[in-house]
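Open question from group meeting: does this chain pack into something compact, or does most of it stay loose? Before anyone orders reagents, we agreed to write out a predicted structure and look at it together. Recording both the input and the output here so the notebook holds the full record.
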Amino acid sequence: MASPTREALEQEWQRLSRYHIDLRPAALGPPEAFSDALAPLNPDLWYWPRVDPNRMREKSRAVALRIGLSFAGARRQPTTEEFYAAVHAEAPTEAQRCLVYAWVLQATEMDLIHAWVEQAYSWRQLVRALHHAEFDVYSQIRIINDFASRGECGGVRLWDTP
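Structure tokens returned:
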């Protein structure tokens, strides 16, 4: 069977784009394209779910919830501290790379944002960890790249907020 022509592929992409489906490969942007700022602790900005000062950084509630859901059947669930260490590792181990890969693979857009709001990572730290993990899931890459280019979610600026 002959491979499809460029025109046939373009027609298929246009057809799918009418339904907001884009199957073209996406490349994760370089870490430098993303902000290294942590989320501002402004209670007026992050009203739901309320940010608990005791559930931030290595104890992030958003990270814990996603780990609990995604690793429910695992013999031993990773901890939020292990995830935090994995995202911040300069030379991550294979296990740390796999943890970051699996967490982002399962995370929703709001999980990604809530973990940032709870200062589990800066966007640059997360993207650097994803490059270490050789993350290649196009749908998630598009969401993360969008944060770099748009820098907002739901009308809230993500990295130059008051």
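Observations to bring back to the group:
Residues 26-157 form one domain.
The chain has one domain: 26-157.
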